[in-house]
Write a structure and sequence with these properties.
heterodimer; A: about 400 residues; alpha/beta; Aconitase, domain 3; five-stranded parallel sheet; four-stranded parallel sheet; 14 strands; B: about 130 residues
Chain lengths: ~400, ~130
């Protein structure tokens, strides 16, 4: 790989230890994936924030970088293991909370914004078409590549952090035109009526597409919430980093239509996809907002919960940025008056739900079903409306 | 026997080979408190990676696995070195941040389980 003079001196340690360690990471990855050089990035989004996953060694590593490291581009954090302000009400134990705040402290010293969301594009980190970025939240990677037309590989937490602290990433994969070529045509004849339908479809297609690039045909319209949950599902059952949707996503027209494998998705497949996502059992915990809710979703939820009193624990997960808008529009008050919890900075997947005594979770997200099952919980995949009814 | 691979993280190490033909996930697959492989159904389940020359084709699973390697290193439970057929992001980043010597592009079939292995940069000697 060819490095510029500046990059070589960064690698030699002339700009400090943190920069050097980060360059070592980027150069090694560049060599592994056959990049010929590094390119500048304008934005980073960094996962590896929940103390549940990082542990004490993760804190140690971040503290070490924070000695002389500093973000060089716009950088936001993924969700943490708790709501950073109302963790006590969330019944998080003090030891966990103290450690989680240490993690956030280290990242903040490094100059990353504690947006703590999987939807940075709803919280001020919104790259433009064809911008090179380095993001590591898998659902946001798919959304950025597919819907925004920005360019990122599926980074891991440390490699996105390395991009943040150096302003660079190796030039390969989804940064190149050829990496963005569709590999699997998906002929959709199922009627998609809600974001949950898009979510189930994403889970089904992700399994088949694996690391490929699905090209959806036959979808008449898709809104932000549909595309957000589709992105998340595609990235959880498979290793998808990008999709195209004819007539909807910006690069669908430019994509070469060479011969590719084909898959159909009809109403029977939709029904099957929904069923395979559900276990049995009465839910004792209901969680929506995977990925984090938009203001539109909070409006719908507030409308449904208005004047109701909930019988079961309901978490509505969103970014603090979106919650502040919901505070001003009154949605937050309505939602919380029902007994539901607006959980900011975190979500049902990265918070330690499994150690809080819950066993069956109802959610409207295929991604959440996938990861909650991995955490040892049983799940029910239901439309938003039904999730809210379960809580009442 | 001498084998030459590609350096992912340069260093010297020596130890007994712990070999598998199955990919390995550090997140969920290795217990950071003991250094033992705990992935259900893995052919090395129950084996300790502490101080071994860990030989496996490639990493898999969550990228949080990189931090698990760092945790193992901090508590003295890391492998002495890692040899892969084809290194990927999780293992590469984990080895670099934890300063664990790591080499890939090695024909793993040539390394018998339990044999003494020494590593010096790209050079692997049995």
């Amino acid at each position: 790989m060819k490095l510029s003079q500046t990059e070589s001196s960064m690698l030699a340690g002339k700009e400090g230890r943190a920069t050097q360690k980060c360059m070592e990471i980027l150069v090694a990855l560049g060599e592994i994936y056959g990049a010929d050089r590094l390119i500048p990035v304008s934005s980073a989004q960094v996962s590896g924030v929940s103390y549940k996953n990082l542990g004490d060694a993760g804190i140690e590593f971040l503290d070490e970088l924070a000695v002389d490291g500093r973000a060089r581009v716009k950088s936001t954090l993924n969700p943490a293991g708790m709501d950073l302000s109302s963790w006590k009400e969330q019944r998080i134990n003090e030891e966990f909370a103290r450690k989680q705040l240490e993690v956030i402290g280290a990242y903040t010293r490094l100059g990353l914004e504690p947006a703590c969301t999987c939807t940075p594009y709803l919280a001020g980190n919104l790259p433009a078409f064809s911008e090179h970025i380095a993001w590591s939240e898998s659902s946001a990677v798919v959304y950025a590549n597919s819907v925004l037309g920005a360019r990122t590989n599926r980074e891991g937490g440390p490699s996105a952090l390395a991009a943040s602290l150096t302003g660079r990433t190796p030039y390969y994969g989804y940064h190149l035109d050829e990496g963005r070529t569709p590999t699997l045509r998906v002929e959709v004849s199922a009627l998609l009526e809600s974001p949950e339908d898009f979510s189930a479809m994403g889970y089904y297609v992700g399994k088949v597409a694996r690391n490929g690039v699905p090209y959806f045909r036959g979808v008449e319209s898709a809104g932000l919430e549909d595309l957000k949950t589709l992105s998340a599902a595609l990235a959880s059952s498979g290793g998808v980093a990008m999709f195209h949707m004819e007539g909807i996503t910006p690069e669908a027209n430019m994509a070469p239509k060479q011969s590719m494998d084909s898959l159909s998705f009809d109403s029977g497949d939709l029904r099957n996809a929904r069923e395979t996502l559900s276990d049995s059992g009465q839910p004792d915990f209901i969680a929506v907002g995977c990925p984090h809710c938009s203001l539109t979703e909070l409006a719908t939820i507030a409308q449904r919960l208005k004047g109701r009193t909930l019988k079961r624990e309901l978490w509505v997960c969103c970014s603090r940025a979106v919650k502040e808008l919901a505070d001003k529009t009154g949605y937050s008050r309505t939602i919380e008056a029902s007994g539901a919890r607006l959980a900011c900075d975190t979500c049902m997947v990265v918070a330690p739900i499994e150690s809080m005594g819950f066993t069956v979770v109802a959610t409207n997200s295929a991604k959440a079903c996938h990861y909650l099952r991995n955490n040892g919980l049983r799940v029910r995949f239901l439309p938003l409306e039904k999730c809210l009814e379960e809580a009442m | 026997m001498k084998l030459v691979g590609r350096v992912i993280y340069r260093g010297n190490a020596e130890g007994k080979a712990l070999v598998t033909s199955q990919p390995l996930s550090f997140y969920g697959g290795v217990d950071p408190a003991t250094g033992k492989i705990v992935e259900k159904g893995h052919e090395l389940a129950g084996e300790s990676i502490v101080g071994r020359i860990l030989v496996f084709p490639n990493g898999k699973g969550s990228t949080v696995g990189s931090y698990i390697l760092y945790r193992l290193r901090s508590s003295g439970l890391a492998p002495a070195a890692i040899i892969n057929r084809e290194c990927e992001t999780i293992v590469a980043v984990g080895a670099i941040i934890s300063s664990i010597p790591c080499v890939d592009k090695i024909e793993l079939g040539k390394i018998a389980p339990g044999v003494r292995v020494s590593i010096d940069g790209a050079l692997v000697q049995l």
